[in-house]
Amino acid sequence: MAPKQTPGMSTEKKTKEERRAEARNKARMLREQEEKRAKRNRILTIVSILVVLALVVFAVVKIVTSKASDHGSYDGEKRTVKLANVTDDYGIYVGTKGEAVAKANGAPTVGVYSDFICTHCNDLEKAAGAAYAKHSAAGDVQVQYFPVSILGGSMSQLGAAAAFYVATYSPDNYVQFQEKLFARTDEILKRTKAQPTAGEIADIAKAAGVPDDVLADMPASIESKEWQDVVQKATDKFREKGFKGTPTVTLDGKETEEWAKGGMPAFLDSVAKPTK
To answer: Are 111 and 70 in contact (CB under 8 A)?
Structure first.
């Protein structure tokens, strides 16, 4: 005789199987969801990395392009700092033809400390440039320029570095270059032109007759840390001597304000070594 089936037994067994199936199905769905989420996260991570890399590449390209633009057509390399025609205290003696020279001529030495963005330095240069040239040619006054950077900005910092660079690598063009730098200063102060890029300073040097091979390396050089260190050392030396502002004028190394009483041309005449 067949065993008697308890009512509800088959239904209870079926319900357990269904529950197990549902549990397995839920587990499978959770695994699939987790796999999808992990895949989505991997994709997002990869996309994020690609975006960051793209931004880095863009920034590098922008920097390189900007630097190339700042240098204009001058694509040379930085020159090593091996100063010539520059004294230990970062002065530049002027010879009879406006060239930078290594040694003084023995006449009374008038030193002029200037910042290429300084208003009063520019005024002094305009008032005294011809007198400097006259006495340099006569050899009765030793003019000595001291480029410094007190005020900052490209005209101040790059201009000073360029002055040392030209004195070293194109000494015959030194005074002509400085005159043209101050002409740009005048335009900046009148707000007709902006402060120059390194490439524009090289353009100024070109107009002063600096040779092409020297020009090619000028922008990369004057922007470099090594040449900017020269400017900083020159400025530090200026401060070590107790000087504070520009223009500062010295006579045989000692600060003087006599030049301000009757003007620099008259002062140069008064200190000039008598001619034989």
So the answer is: no
Q: Which CATH class is domain 92-271?
A: alpha beta
DSSP symbol at 192: S
Q: Where are the beta strands (DSSP E) in the chain?
A: 92-94, 100-101, 109-114, 142-147, 248-251, 254-255
pLDDT in tens, 106-131: 999 999 999 999 999 999 999 999 99
Half-sphere exposure of residue 110: CA atoms within 13 angstroms, side-chain side: 25
Q: CA separation (Å) from 48 to 45, 53, 55, 57, 203?
A: 5, 9, 11, 14, 44
pLDDT tens digits, one per residue of 181-212: 999 999 999 999 999 999 999 999 999 999 99
d(CA 93, CA 82): 17
* Local structure of residue 146 (DSSP, 8 states): E
Outline where 72-173 has alpha helix (H).
119-138, 154-169
Measure the CA angle with vertex 198, ends 80 and 89; round to 5°: 50
Residues of the chain with pLDDT under 50: 8-10, 64-66
Domain ranges of the chain: 18-70, 92-271
Cα separation values, 84 from 167, 187, 204, Å: 7, 30, 21
Query: How deeply is 72 buried, as exposed, middle or buried, from its count of CB atoms within 10 A (0-12, 13-18, 19+)?
Result: middle
Please state the pTM of the whole predicted model: 0.76
Query: Looking at the DSSP assignment, which residues form a beta bridge with residue 32?
Result: none
d(CA 75, CA 172): 23
**Token output for 68:** 């190339």
